[in-house]
Each structure stands twice: as structure tokens, then as C-alpha cells.
Design a protein that fits this description.
By secondary structure, this protein is mainly alpha-helical. The chain is built from ten helices and two strands, in the order H-H-H-H-H-H-E-H-H-H-H-E. A two-stranded antiparallel ribbon has the order 1-2. Helix 3 packs antiparallel against helix 10 and helix 5 runs antiparallel to helix 6.
């Protein structure tokens, strides 16, 4: 067996002062490891959407009636709180799993050789979004599931998914300047698609805020709009996104675009079809909880697919030039 090197006092001090730099000096992950770490963070950002939906759909939003503790006297859920307390507290615990996944992505990106500052920054961006959204989640509980704060909570999670998707894509690219694969008119069409998708997500939060699933069995404030009218607006926006995706596929075929954008557009179209079927079925069956949960999962997957279409419009070839690593950082996040 290989002898484990002794850790000197200087090593211990360096590890305490800057643990990321200490790890990076002694470990070089493979590109596949970095990609898997970024993918793990993305998967957990989707999982937290699904479990958050489960909290809402089971009426467990106030299972832990306060924050950061579960009750005024207990940090964790107690047996007297029943299943709702367990569900809400379980979702809170998953936030730590999400933090661990994001932390792993940051460590892997920071340790990669050559050092890629842009990739590490994407990891730290996820970290700060998670921290901000955790605080926002606490505010949601403290204000009794106010629908506007709930909507902001979901939008922040969508932002997390966006950053995680970009980081996952960037782990498979180089740091050279992006080279467009399609013309300007196609790029503009895709940006229209992205804008319509963002609007679709925002209106979807209004549908949720005005709909019957308030998140708790107690009297919870709802958005003062007609739920069915907003649902119809949401459906119209969904058809606009579908139409733009269909048009994009034909345009890409007409201009003989590379396989990447075509395949990503096809994937998006298939996800949209499945999401549309779920949406209409849940509407005409009085919103059964299981279908609403699947629709929330579909929303996250649709958003990822839209972003992948956008990112597929350019390429960044990987370089083989070895770059010098950065100097030791003064603080954990000061240079990332």
C-alpha cells in the first residue's frame, strides 16, 4: 500500500484558510467527473421542484409552522405533527442534499486543470441562489404561504435550474469564444422562444397562486384573479411555445443546420407534447394531485430543454493548452 503523506502544520493552516485551493492543489478530477458533478447539481435542482410540489399538493406547506426551526420548541418535526410535519421537514432536509450537490460541483470545477474561472463562477452562482431561495422559503412559511412569495420561490428555483443547465453544458465545452452555428434570424427566433417560455412559467405561477391547491388545509390567501381565465391564458402561451418550437424545427431543416440544434429542438417538442397532454388532462379532471405534480416536473424539464436549444446554437471547441492555475484565494468565494 502507498504510504499516506503526513499533513504538516502548514498544510492544516492552508486547508483552514482556503479549503478549495488546498483540495485543488492535491486533486485533479477527470473531465467526466466534473460533468457528473454539474449534472448532479442540475438533477437535484429538479428534484427540489418535485418535492416542493409534493409539499404543496399534500397540504403540508405549514407542516412546520415556523422557520428556521420546525416549531418554536423543536428544530425537527415531532410525532405530534403527523405526516404533514414529516413531509415539510423532509423537504427542508433535501435542501442540504442540494447544497451538497452544488458544493461538489464547485469543488470539482475549482480543481479541474487547467483552472476555469467561468465554470467555478457558475457553481458559486448556484450556491448563492440556493442560499437566497432557502431564506425566501423561510419567508414563505412565516407569511403563511402568501401566494406571491410562493410564486417568487418557484421563479428562483427556475433561475437555479437555468444556471445549473448552463454549467452542465459548459463542462462539455472549452473556454474559446463561442462560434455561432446558425444565422442571426434563427437566433432571434430562439430568443423569442425563450421569452415566451419565461412568460409561460410566470403565468403558471399565477395559475398556481389562484388555483385550488393552496398548500395547506388552513385558510390560505389566494391571488385575486379568476383561476380559469388565467389557466386559458396559460394554455394559449403553451401553444405559442409549441408553435415556435415547430417553426424552429422547420427553419433549421430548411437552412441545413447542424445536428445539435435539430436534436435539441426535437427533444423540446416531444417534452412539450407530453406536458400539454398532462396539462389538459389535469384541467378536465379537476386537478388531481398526481397529475399536478407531473406537470411541475414537466415544467422543469421543459425549461431545461428550452435552454439546451439556446445553448446548442453555438459551439466552444475545447483547447488543449495548459493554463497556469490561479494563485491561492484569500477567501473561499473571493475569486470565484
Amino acid at each position: 500500500m502507498e504510504r499516506v503523506p503526513n499533513v504538516t502544520r502548514a498544510d492544516a493552516v492552508a486547508a483552514v484558510r482556503n479549503p478549495l485551493a488546498f483540495i485543488a492543489e492535491r486533486w485533479t478530477p477527470t473531465p467526466r467527473t466534473v460533468q457528473r458533478a454539474a449534472l448532479a447539481a442540475l438533477v437535484m435542482s429538479v428534484v427540489i421542484v418535485v418535492t416542493g410540489g409534493a409539499v404543496r399538493l399534500t397540504g403540508s406547506g405549514l407542516g412546520c409552522p415556523t422557520w428556521p426551526k420546525c416549531t418554536d420548541d423543536s428544530l425537527t418535526a415531532t410525532s405530534e405533527m403527523g405526516v404533514h410535519g414529516a413531509i415539510e421537514f423532509g423537504n427542508r432536509l433535501l435542501t442540504y442534499v442540494l447544497c451538497a450537490a452544488v458544493g461538489w460541483a464547485i469543488i470539482a470545477a475549482r480543481s479541474q486543470k487547467p483552472y476555469r474561472r467561468s465554470l467555478t463562477r457558475l457553481g458559486w452562482a448556484q450556491f448563492w441562489v440556493v442560499m437566497s431561495n432557502a431564506i425566501l422559503g423561510g419567508i414563505v412559511v412565516l407569511v403563511g404561504l402568501n401566494p406571491y412569495t410562493v410564486a417568487a420561490h418557484f421563479v428562483a428555483t427556475s433561475a437555479l435550474i437555468a444556471v445549473a443547465t448552463v454549467m452542465w453544458q459548459r463542462t462539455r465545452e472549452g473556454d474559446t469564444a463561442p462560434r455561432p452555428l446558425v444565422g442571426r434570424s434563427v437566433q432571434q427566433l430562439v430568443w423569442f422562444l425563450v421569452a415566451a417560455s419565461v412568460l409561460l412559467i410566470l403565468v403558471g405561477t399565477v395559475v398556481t397562486g389562484a388555483g385550488p391547491h393552496a398548500g395547506d388545509s388552513s385558510e390560505v390567501e389566494r391571488m385575486p384573479v379568476d383561476w380559469e381565465s388565467v389557466s386559458k391564458v396559460h394554455a394559449v402561451l403553451a401553444w405559442i411555445v409549441v408553435s415556435l418550437t415547430f417553426a424552429l424545427w422547420f427553419v433549421l431543416k430548411a437552412v441545413d443546420a447542424p445536428a445539435g440544434p435539430l436534436h435539441r429542438t426535437r427533444d423540446l417538442f416531444l417534452i412539450l407534447l407530453a406536458q400539454g397532454v398532462i396539462g389538459y388532462v389535469q384541467y378536465f379532471t379537476d386537478l388531481p394531485e398526481i397529475l399536478v405534480g407531473l406537470h411541475m416536473l414537466g415544467s422543469a424539464l421543459t425549461w431545461i430543454a428550452v435552454l439546451r436549444v439556446l445553448l446548442a446554437l453555438r459551439e466552444r471547441p475545447q483547447t488543449t493548452v495548459d493554463l497556469p492555475g490561479p494563485a491561492a484565494e484569500a477567501t473561499v468565494g473571493s475569486r470565484t
